[in-house]
Design goal:
The complex is a heterodimer of chains A (256) and B (156). Chain A contains eight helices and two strands, in the order αββααααααα. Chain A has 256 residues and is mainly alpha-helical. The chains are: A mainly alpha (256), B mainly alpha (156).
Chain lengths: 256, 156
């Protein structure tokens, strides 16, 4: 897309990696991330809600059938990993999978489409894939982290949780080491969860941008295979985020 | 990587979506799926039950059929026997009746023959008498020859 009067390659890349920011310093908002994620969430979960309202135990329609397939997949994964009784985990896993999947899927849209359309309306910076924004991935992973802490205290009690943190895995005699290990382990969880999703999607987006810099007649040779491969990444990343959430939460329900 | 307040905005959005799914989307669909699973299980059980009942009915039907066949065979045999008996009875009755008729006819014949013979005797006697009258060409004293005539008559 580097036209003769347009931006240089590096300007083009930077432009595509810049969020639409409102505000200054820490108290600023990425409008593009927020708007896309909220709109996608509203559309997808609205659709699921409309199916849920007309749901029937009889012969399901195509939409219901599709959603039931998803539900079945999520529910069976939760049942395999998590053995307690918790009404939150399955819907939480479902939400994560569906939402992350749809947000990742924005990557499949040609990278210039949304910014181009929005430039007609005077909006000049727009990152259309919310999962390439660490704010979103960290928001989700920290929410999961909060739930982990909450269930650790709720299920095991303050004493039980403290005892577990002190005594596992080396026994109570090495309490400081155990505690240090535990802290590292628990901090690593949300960090890896967020950075894995962010890294994968950011790198994918980056590759799309680089491909878009090529002359238009060779773009398809790289763009098409990458987009097809990316379908796998999109699903896989959503699935991994969901599975790890289930695993982490089930770990916080079970004593070591 | 610039972390800013977007994180809170996304966390709130995430929380709302999770709450929404948990409240409005997950339970009805899960319930419907479980209901359908239950329905299918019930249907399969009903099909099994139906098959079992059908087998039972078939067995019962076979039993009844065999029973009916046996009964009809018995009835048929009885009827045959009864028919034979009736024929035999009729035959013997007819034989007896026939014998009696024949006997009666014999009696009648014998009686009639006796009667005819008696008449014939008398006629022969009268004829003999008339012949003798003719031969003798005279009036025979009936009284003096009655004994003789009687002798002739009885020797006929």
């Amino acid at each position: 897309m580097a036209t003769e009067t347009g931006p240089t390659s590096s300007e083009y890349i930077v432009h595509h990696l810049t969020n639409n920011v409102v505000g200054e310093g820490f108290w600023s908002l990425h409008i593009d991330t927020l708007v896309v994620s909220i709109v996608l969430g509203a559309v997808v979960f609205g659709l699921m809600y409309s199916v849920a309202r007309k749901v029937t135990a009889g012969v399901p329609g195509p939409a219901q059938n599709f959603i039931e397939m998803l539900f079945d997949m999520v529910d069976s994964q939760v049942k395999v990993v998590f053995h307690g009784k918790n009404d939150l985990i399955a819907p939480l896993a479902m939400t994560i999978f569906v939402w992350v999947f749809t947000m990742n899927a924005m990557d499949i849209l040609p990278i210039d489409v949304l910014p181009w359309v929005l430039s007609w309306f005077g909006i000049h910076y727009f990152k259309s894939v919310p999962t390439t924004d660490p704010n979103l991935t960290f928001a989700m992973s920290l929410s999961v982290f909060c739930l982990m802490i909450y269930y650790n205290f709720k299920v095991k009690g303050v004493g039980g949780f403290a005892h577990e943190a002190m005594s596992a895995p080396f026994g109570i005699k090495l309490a400081p080491v155990n505690l240090l290990f535990r802290i590292i382990e628990d901090i690593a969880k949300p960090l890896s969860l967020a950075l894995r999703l962010f890294g994968n999607m950011y790198a994918g987006e980056m590759v799309f941008i680089l491909i878009a810099l090529l002359p238009f007649y060779v773009q398809w040779m790289l763009g098409a295979p990458w987009a097809i491969f990316h379908i796998l990444i999109i699903t896989l990343q959503a699935y991994i985020f969901m599975m790890l959430t289930i695993v982490y939460l089930s770990m916080s329900h079970e004593s070591h | 990587m610039n972390i800013n307040a977007t994180l809170f905005g996304q966390a709130i959005t995430f929380a709302i979506l999770v709450w929404f799914t948990m409240k409005f989307v997950w339970p009805p669909i899960m319930k419907a799926m479980q209901e359908r699973a239950q329905r299918i299980a019930d249907g399969l059980a009903a099909a099994d039950e139906g098959r079992r009942k059908f087998t039972q009915a078939e067995q019962l039907f076979q039993e009844k059929l065999t029973e009916g066949k046996q009964q009809s065979a018995v009835i048929l045999a009885q009827a045959h026997k009864r028919g034979d008996e009736m024929i035999e009875e009729a035959k013997s009755t007819a034989r007896v009746e026939g014998g009696r008729i024949i006997e009666a006819a014999r009696h009648e014949i014998a009686r009639e023959r006796e009667q005819v013979r008696e008449q014939l005797k008398q006629q022969v006697a009268a004829l003999a008498l008339a012949g003798a009258e003719q031969i003798l060409m005279r009036e025979v004293d009936r009284k003096s020859h009655d004994d003789l005539l009687g002798k002739i008559g009885s020797s006929l």
